[in-house]
Amino acid sequence: MRVSLELKRDKATRTHKHTTVLVRYRSGNMQEYTYKARKALKLKPGDIVLVPVAENFVLASVTFVHKKPTYNTRCREENFLIRWVVCKVDFTGYYDALELDNSYESKVRGEVDDD
Q1: Number of CB atoms found within 10 A of residue 111's CB
Q2: Per-10-residue mean pLDDT for the chain, 115 residues long?
Q3: Where do the structural domains in the chain lie, given as residue ranges?
Q4: Residue of 65, 75, 74 lying closest to 19 (CA atoms)
């Protein structure tokens, strides 16, 4: 069973339904790290993504998206495990909620100011 999963994974890699991206963790570390990402995510520089780091997940900023999977020499030589981007973070709903809060607070302030 394990062999067939590895073959499927290898086939997905060969068909380039993914690429690699460079990211910087949002913690302020300026070092770039390579992650694999599904092309369907349509990532671009500046996007915020969730990525695995050790036993946790952190937010990172995409700094570069390769046209096809690109692995640097160090990764190949040291057999680094290149991990996958979990997802792109969509802040649209969050910003909509903030706008709704601001609108509601403005109405409440307006009612209080009228008294």
Answers
A1: 9
A2: 47 72 89 94 97 94 94 63 93 91 73 54
A3: 17-89
A4: 65
Q: In what order do the strands lie in the sheet with 87-88?
A: 33-38, 18-25, 56-65, 48-53, 87-88
Q: What is the pTM of this model?
A: 0.70
Query: CA neighbours within 13 Å on the CB side: how many for 21?
Result: 30
pLDDT at 89: 95
For tokens 């499927």, name the residue: 8
pLDDT confidence of residue 34: 93
Closest CA to 50 of 15, 10, 5, 83: 83
Cα distances from 11 to residues 6, 45, 90, in angstroms, run 9, 27, 30
Question: Are the C-beta atoms of residues 33 and 81 closer than 8 Å to each other?
Answer: no
